[in-house]
Amino acid sequence: MAKITDFFSNIQNHDAFEALLRPHVDHLYRVAYRLTRQPDAAEDLLQDVMLHFYPKYTELRKVENLKPWLTRSLYNLFIDNIRKDKRNPVSAAVDESVLSVVADHSHHPEREAEQELMQRRLNIALDQLNDDQRDVVMLHDMEGYTLTELAEVMATPVGTLKSRLHRARNNIRKALSVEPSDLIMRVKG
Amino acid sequence: MKCKDVVSQIEDFVDDELSTSQHDLLRSHFESCGNCYQSWQQELIFRQVLKQYPLPPARAGLDRRAFSKLPRRPSVHKNAFIAGFGTAMAAAIVLAIAASLFLPQYSQQPVANIVLTLYESKKVNMVFDVPEQVADATVSLHLPEHIEIGGRQGLHQIEWKTALKKGKNMLSLPIVAKMATAGELVAKIKYGKQEKVFRLKLDIQKIEQGLTDSAVINRA
Question: What's the predicted TM-score (pTM) here?
Answer without folding.
Answer: 0.58
